[in-house]
UniProtKB/TrEMBL annotation:
Domain of life, source organism: Eukaryota
SUPFAM superfamilies hit by this protein: Calcium ATPase, transduction domain A, Calcium ATPase, transmembrane domain M, HAD-like, Metal cation-transporting ATPase, ATP-binding domain N
Name assigned to this protein: Phospholipid-transporting ATPase
Residues that coordinate or bind ATP: 450-452, 542, 583, 606, 639, 719-721, 778, 784, 807-808
Binding site for Mg(2+): 450, 452, 804, 808
Lineage: Eukaryota, Metazoa, Chordata, Craniata, Vertebrata
Origin species: Kryptolebias marmoratus
Length: 1193
């Protein structure tokens, strides 16, 4: 019982905070964040620390093993609507889709009509059906509306079908469960609460209480990459009572325990519960739980009890709310549409008032205008108002929205098809998972990045070392041949042949002692799979060090509770382990006390140089030379670790051992008592040397960060690591430089620092945003999201978050743009992201090339779209002054219908898809080209009003020049073709030429497609116009096609062609002049690059030919690299208690024959057992401590 209640090492080790002190909830909103800022400090000070071995204070969740009827009791029912009740225990199905076959049409239409524009066009359609006010046929609005709704619905359907497929794949996976004393396979969706499951090398699809496993003491190794972003193995353990009594299926079938625990929540690092079984109550904690999302490793099988399922699992609770994201341009466009609506109403009201006065003065007195209706002037003015609403509605054409959707879809496809963002090693292309945010990529101001797995490869490599003051340098570039060592790991790469030869010669005692220490002083556990040694390390650093010793001939073979066996250059030796002094975050070191075969007692110690140097003996040699070597390693941003030893006499050990045993049984503050005893023996150490491990950066990370910084993008790193590790990576990836002044912001009351930040939100954001770079350390997933929220809220900045683990999901969802890296840490981040790719370096291409191009294209498209519709629509306005304000249209009905659909849409659409001011290489080489997007220079209210006035000017020219030409003119046949229909043809033709030539002037990147689109648009206009003006179609539909012969009659007059040419020339001439003056006198950065494009391209090609890989050189003697060591306590507790050692189980041979056979089959099918991966972990901290590192400009 006493052993059951012991405090276990935190096997999760990444999220850090104690939730009783700093609770976090991913379901908080920004408003809740504000509301809680003042009350949280008091609440946290009063928060009690519940003891582990008592019932949880709020045990509102009960699960009964092997009793399905228990969970259907009335007390577990909840009301969902009126008298309809539903069980609190939801099924295990995962549902992420939005629609089904019945709800798709109504729900999708409801969502689409949430758009004000769609409602507006629906109202227009209704108005056009009313004969009294209809001035245009109903089909002019219905056809575009149906096309827009249809395209959007198809897009939503395709997206939702993908979600359906994904849900079906997950829900239909199979698992073995215990049913009526026998096991059977069922799909995951059918696993209910309280069901016992049997897992073989798979990922649990529910939160499961571990009961027993194939390993000793029901130990189970798991990888939690999708939960906390770490890929090193962790251990879970069943209770001793379940380990001893629940091994056979018969025993499991009779298991009837009642589990009482906390309600489902999103706390990944905490679980409290109790198990009531046979009148005894047993405490449950996180180490007993296998959470959904983790992967079972190096464990043949395990039995478990389903506690949380489906949406109640911690990973689903932790996924946060899906936030609807929209771009800045979307918001701006909506405001502009509202502005146009206001203008439309004002203009229509003004014209309606004009019609009222005109009817009083002229219309009512003109007998030839009598329409047989006895309406008053006010009534006619009212009808004219609605008529002009219909006539002028094309100022906001519905085709705008469908065109925007098409452009965004095309831009997304270009990202997907970009071969320069394709990662060949893993066959992973870039993926735009959304089609609505592309132009926002060109406006990013802040990037929030995870560290582990995002900036780094999550792989540790033993690079260099110093032994007895001598740095073992690289002398030969050829990798060492390890064929002389049968136990060597072939994946281990080293290039210092001199060091290898020195160790093999056995003449250098210091080198021998160095690698012997690495093979003995650790908490690594080993498994022998058919002669292949598989190491299971608590941290990737420790695994890298033991692997290095293995390759140099000092191979860790096995261990028991009190011995450790190694092979020393082929000679096997067993050492008695007298004590194992494990690592923790305060000690920053670990030691082992060994008794050699000759009776000698020696302590080996390894740890951070900052703590080792304080404990060295005055007689220790090589201190200065080793410190110099540490500075050299630090300059190369390697993670360092000092190695030392101490010989201990028998009497000294016996005296210390008694104190150690007393400290081990101390009830109050046991950890502090042990630390004091450890301090007594870890003194007067003799220095041997130091190791240097590289936490490898991803390829191209420093160059990417440097290039993004030149684009005025501020980069913040948010990580769960401690500050030494984060600072080290900051230097290695060029986020930090020697020229920067580093400020460390750390509140003395560490557990309340987050509360302090939240309370002082504005000051914090103002201070941090003045810095060139910020590193936030020891942060939880929710705190990452909070930091992003603060910057969005107070700086109104466009933010991007990038990460690769499930612990980054909340941050990714909170930012304006979320980017997931499909790497070592599962697919949770990718599934929640807006964009995904395999390497961090692709981020600069995504932003500086695709993002900038998308922004430029969308801005150019919108400016021109507004211009061409103002120019088109306002001709009606000028015409109204000559038509008695009678809502008469200036064009033919079919021209109005097809103007935005066929006559002017294709060229501007292609500009929105293909245009680029400079190519991709120059975009990357001149990051300053990105700045206009951040400042929103290319599309804003100023640009909108310029487009408005440009449209007003062109509409004036298009109306009044033909009007003047038609006033006093004579045709070749002696007749004056000054009729309305000929006038409409001339104005329409002038407009089509003007807008298509205007987009030609605005096109920066010409292709055959652009040229074809301009010519084809003009050709389509004339082709359709001559068809609908023909006599044949008029005979078939006399009431619909009324402009019979108008086009052939008008366009055979040469002077009307001269009128069209004059109109187009006067419309375009001011634009040409203004563009020439701006690019000559006030050129932008883009204009300068464009002007010298050929020269820059030649220089880039020349640089590429001469480019050599730069030698990595830094000079930072004052900075100490982070120590390369475990971030979490190791397996010392397991080793010293013997819980990891094999033993015979009571009651037979152990696992039944069927399980042995199944496990063997699975093992055989998984060739290459998963070993402890060399990937970095986050810091384990049971208190909330956020370290903010501020780097002032």
């Amino acid at each position: 019982g006493a052993e059951m209640n012991r405090q276990r090492a935190d096997s999760q080790g990444s999220l850090g905070p104690n939730d009783e002190v700093m609770p976090y909830s991913d379901d908080e909103t920004d408003d809740e964040l504000d509301d809680s800022s003042e009350s949280e400090p008091e609440e946290r000070r009063e928060a009690p620390q519940p003891p582990v071995d008592t019932r949880p204070p709020e045990a509102g969740w009960k699960v009964k093993a092997n009793d399905r009827a228990y969970h259907q009791l009335p007390e577990f029912q909840k009301k969902i609507f009126l008298c309809v009740k539903k069980s609190r225990y939801s099924g295990n199905a995962i549902k992420t889709y939005k629609y089904n076959a019945l709800t798709f049409l109504p729900l999708n239409l409801y969502e689409q009509f949430k758009r004000v524009a769609n409602i507006y066009f629906l109202a227009l359609l209704i108005l056009q059906i009313i004969p009294e006010i209809s001035t245009l046929p109903w089909y002019t609005t219905l056809i575009p509306l149906v096309i827009v709704l249809g395209i959007t619905a198809i897009k939503d359907l395709v997206d939702d079908l993908a979600r359906h497929r994904m849900d079906k794949e997950i829900n239909n996976r199979k698992c073995e469960v215990l049913q009526d004393s026998r096991s059977e396979k069922v799909i995951f969706v059918d696993i209910p609460f309280g069901r016992l499951v049997l897992l073989f090398f798979c990922s649990p699809q529910a939160d499961i209480l571990l009961l027993s496993s194939s390993n000793p003491n029901s130990l189970c190794y798991v990888e939690t990459a999708e939960l906390d972003g770490e890929t090193n193995l962790k251990f879970k353990m069943g209770l001793r009572v379940t380990d001893e009594r629940l091994q056979e299926e018969r025993q499991l079938a009779q298991f009837d325990a009642l589990i009482e625990c906390e309600e489902p929540n999103n706390r990944l690092d905490k679980f409290l519960g109790t198990m009531l079984w046979n009148q005894e109550r047993y405490p449950l904690e996180l180490d007993n739980m296998l959470l959904r999302g983790c992967k079972v490793r190096n464990t043949d099988y395990c039995h478990g009890l389903v506690i949380f399922a489906g949406a109640d699992t911690k990973i689903m609770k932790n996924s946060g709310k899906t936030r609807f994201k929209r771009t800045k341009i979307d918001e701006l466009m909506n405001y502009m549409v509202y502005t146009i609506f206001a203008m439309l109403i004002l203009v229509s009201a003004g014209l309606a008032i004009g019609h009222k006065f005109w009817y009083d003065d002229i219309g009512s007195k003109a007998w030839y205008l009598e329409d047989g209706k006895s309406y008053s002037a006010d009534h006619r003015g009212f009808l004219s108002f609605w008529g002009y609403i219909i006539v002028l509605n094309t100022m906001v054409p519905i085709s705008l929205y469908v065109s925007v959707e098409v452009i965004r879809l095309g831009q997304s496809k270009f990202i997907n098809w970009d071969l320069q963002m394709f990662y060949q090693e893993k066959d992973t292309p870039a993926k735009a998972r959304t089609t609505t945010l592309n132009e926002q990529l060109g406006q990013i101001q802040y990037i929030f990045s995870d560290k582990t797995g995002t900036l780094t490869q999550n792989i540790m490599q033993f690079k260099k070392c110093t032994i007895a003051g001598q740095i073992k340098r690289v002398l030969v570039l050829q990798p060492v041949d390890w064929s002389w060592n049968r136990q060597a790991d072939p994946k281990f790469s080293f290039v210092d042949h001199f060091l290898v030869a020195n160790v093999r010669s056995k003449k250098d005692k210091d080198a021998t002692e160095f690698f012997k220490l690495l093979s003995l002083c650790h908490t690594v556990m080993v498994e022998n799979n058919d002669g292949n040694l598989v190491y299971q390390a608590a941290s990737p650093d420790e695994g890298a060090l033991v692997t290095a010793a293995r390759n140099f001939g000092f191979v860790f073979l096995s261990r028991t509770q009190d011995t450790i066996t190694i092979s020393e250059m082929g000679n096997e030796a067993t050492y008695e382990m007298l004590a194992l002094l494990d690592f923790n975050s305060d000690r920053k070191r670990m030691s082992i006390v060994l008794k050699f075969p000759n009776g000698q007692i020696r302590l080996y110690c390894k740890g951070a140089d900052t703590v080792i140097y304080e404990r060295l003996s005055p007689n220790s040699r090589h201190k200065d030379t080793t410190q110099t070597a540490l500075d050299v390693f630090a300059n190369e941003t390697l993670r360092t670790l000092c190695l030392c030893y101490k010989d201990i006499s028998e009497s000294e050990y016996q005296a210390w051992s008694r104190k150690h045993k007393d400290a081990q049984v101390t009830i109050a503050d046991r950890d502090a008592a042990l630390d004091r005893v450890y301090e007594e023996i870890e003194t007067n150490l003799m220095l041997i040397g130091a190791t240097a491990i590289e936490d490898k950066l991803q390829e191209g990370v420093p160059e990417t960060i440097a290039n993004l910084a030149k684009a005025d993008i501020k980069i913040w790193v948010l990580t769960g690591d401690k500050k030494e590790t984060a600072e080290n990576i900051g230097y290695s990836c060029s986020l930090l430089t020697d020229e920067m002044t580093i400020h460390y912001g750390e509140d003395p009351q560490r557990s309340r620092f987050i509360s302090y930040i939240i309370k002082m939100q504005i000051d914090f954001v103002d201070m941090a945003c003045e810095c060139e770079a910020v590193i936030c350390c020891r942060v939880t997933p929710k705190q990452k999201a909070n930091v992003v929220t603060l910057v969005k809220k107070y700086k109104k900045a466009v933010t991007l978050s990038i990460g690769d683990g499930a612990n980054d999901v909340n941050m990714i969802k909170t930012a304006d743009i979320g980017v997931g890296i499909s790497g070592q840490e599962g697919m949770q981040a990718v599934m929640s992201s807006d964009y995904a790719f395999a390497q961090f370096r692709y981020l600069q291409r995504l932003l500086l090339v695709h993002g900038r191009w998308s922004y430029i294209r969308m801005c150019k498209f919108l400016r021109f779209f507004f211009f061409k519709n103002f120019a088109f629509t306002l001709v009606h306005f000028w015409y109204s002054f000559f038509s008695g304000y009678s809502s008469q249209v200036a064009y033919e009905d079919w021209f109005i219908t097809l103007y935005n659909l066929a006559y002017s849409s294709l060229p501007v659409l292609l500009v929105g898809l293909l245009d680029q001011d400079v190519n991709d290489k120059l975009s990357l080489n001149f990051p300053k080209l990105y700045v206009p997007g951040q400042q929103g220079r290319l599309f804003n209210y100023k640009k909108f009003f310029i487009s408005l006035f440009h449209g007003i000017f062109v509409s004036l020219i298009i109306f009044f020049i033909p009007y003047g030409a038609f006033l006093q003119t004579m045709g070749q046949d002696g007749e004056a073709p000054s009729d309305y229909q000929s006038f409409a043809v001339v104005t329409a033709s002038s407009l089509i030429f003007t807008v298509n030539l205007q987009i030609s002037l605005d096109t920066s990147y010409w292709t055959f497609v652009n040229c074809f689109a301009v010519l084809a648009s003009i050709a389509i206009y004339f082709g359709i116009m001559f068809d609908i003006h023909s006599a044949g179609i008029h005979v078939i539909f006399p009431s619909i096609f009324t402009f019979t012969g108008a086009a052939p009659n008008a366009l055979r007059q040469p002077y009307l062609w001269l009128t069209i040419i004059l109109t187009v020339a006067i419309s375009l001439l001011p634009v040409v002049c203004i563009q020439f003056l701006y690019k000559t006198i006030w050129p932008s950065v883009g204009d300068k690059v464009q002007r010298n494009r050929k020269r820059y391209e030649m220089e880039l090609e020349e640089e590429q030919r001469k480019k050599k890989p730069p030698a990595f050189q830094r000079n930072r003697p004052s900075r100490r690299s982070a120590y390369a060591f475990s971030h979490t306590p190791g397996y010392a507790n397991l080793i010293s208690t013997g819980r990891s050692m094999r033993r015979r189980r009571g009651g037979g041979e152990g696992k039944p024959e069927r399980i042995r056979r199944s496990a063997a089959e699975i093992r055989n099918s998984n060739v290459g057992s998963v070993s402890a991966r060399e990937h970095g972990g986050d810091d384990a901290a049971l208190r909330v401590r956020v370290f903010i590192q501020l780097h002032l400009l």
